[in-house]
Every structure is written in structure tokens, then in C-alpha cells.
Amino acid sequence: MKKNWKTLMLMGTMVLGMGLFTAGCGSSSTTADGGNGADKTYVVGTDASYAPFESMNGEKIEGFDMDVLSAAADAGGFKVQFQNTPWDGIFLTLKNNDRDIVASAVTITDERKKELDFSDPYFEATQMIVSKKGAELKTLAELKDKKIAVQNGTTGDEVVTKMLGKGSPNIKRFENMPLALLELKNGGVDAAVGDNGVVLEYVKNNGAGEFVTSVDSSFEKEHYGFVVKKGNTELQKKINDGLKKIKENGKLDEINKKYGFSK
């Protein structure tokens, strides 16, 4: 999915100044052997408001991204510890060494690669339009002059902003996608645009008969990757090695089936 890093870098400064609330601030990778590298545990930041990719179940963070990265870590010989981290400023946690990895349905883009390093892709996504039954909006062109809800700083936000203009009063931005979809459900907007996996999960659990979903022919395929600090090639290689193994041994296919993503 997601996400315009320039905006988030600026917005995140305030969040980081507050110490990232209780999300394990100031702690990055640790070792259980006194520091020689064995049994290293990497701290992973994730915005746990993006089901089915990451969400809270009581005090536990769970979701597709958690399962994939945990499996890659097991295969690659390292450990991970997940910390719920606000989306605004999540990439700054890498630059400030508060987090080692970001696993939060992050779309790999050329722009982001200028400031961040990505793992190999582990999931293919696309943007999706969702509207109310009886007032269907199925193409990007039909969204012109309509009120549209998006999650701030996501690729959905970028798509709608490109069409309507950055300062358009018809774009309503929310801190997470469930809030954007709730605005649609409550009649505050005409449609919402977001990652297909998240949109479909929300529709499934919140009255499938109320909504109509569609993918515009202009929407490009997107790929999610795990994110590390620019230049951290050692950790990037560990993640990629683990991903390669779970792709080859069928574990990634198993996780996809668990979440209904298998083709």
C-alpha cells in the first residue's frame, strides 16, 4: 500500500519527539549473547491498523506481514520483535535507529528507494475503488467532482491527489484506512480508494451487501516490501535470503492461502 514518505517524514518528527508513545522507543536490535551477533533480535515497526496485514488482537500484533516476516526470519536465522508504531513518522524510526525493519504493507516505489532500502517483493497489490451500493462509482474518471476518502500518505492518496489536485477540498484524508471506509459507510464521502487487500477485508467484515468494489484499468500493480535503513545491506540480505527460502519451500504459499490471497 501505502505511502508518501516525504509527507510522513515531516509529520513524523513531532511523533518521534514524543518518544513514539509506548512502542519501545530507543530500542533497536539486541543480541542474547553479549553482542557477537548470534540470536540477534531485530525490532520491527508496524502500524497495526491495517488488517489483514497488521492489526491488534488484544495486546498481540498479528497479520499477514507478521506471518511472512516471522517465517522469513526463522528461515534466515534471525529473530524479530514487533512494535506497534504510528504510521506518521514510521520511516524516521529507521533513520533514528529506533526500529530495524518496517513491516507495514509498504509499496516499493522508485521515490522511496532514494531514501530507504527494500527487501525483495513479497506481495502484489493494487488500488481499489469502493462505493455504496445504489451509488456505484467504478472508474477513476467517475470520481471527478466527488468526495473521496483516503488514508493520508498512501498510494491511494497519491492516485486521488494526482487526479483532483493536492489542495482539492473533495479529498478527505484519514490517519488509517478503516476510518476512511467508515466515513464512506456513514455517508460522508461518495467513495474511498485504498489497497485491495484492506478494502476487501473491511467490506467482508462490515456489510458486504452495502458496498461495491472495482479496480480501474489505469491502476498499476504494486508490490510490498520490508523496509530497512538506507545502506543496511547486511539486514536486507538476511531478509531476502529468508524470503527466498519460504518462496521455495512453499511456506509463503501457505501463508497466502491462510489469508485468502492465493490465486
Automatic annotation (TrEMBL):
Listed GO CC annotations: cell envelope; membrane
Residues annotated as domain Solute-binding protein family 3/N-terminal: 41-263
Keyword field: Signal
Pfam families the UniProt entry points to: SBP_bac_3
The organism's place on the tree of life at top rank: Bacteria
GO molecular function: ligand-gated monoatomic ion channel activity
Signal sequence bounds: 1-22
Annotated Ionotropic glutamate receptor C-terminal domain residues: 41-260
CDD domains with a match to the protein in the record: PBP2_Arg_Lys_His
Location(s) in or outside the cell: Cell envelope
Similarity section: Belongs to the bacterial solute-binding protein 3 family.
Protein name: ABC transporter substrate-binding protein
Species this chain originates from: Tumebacillus flagellatus
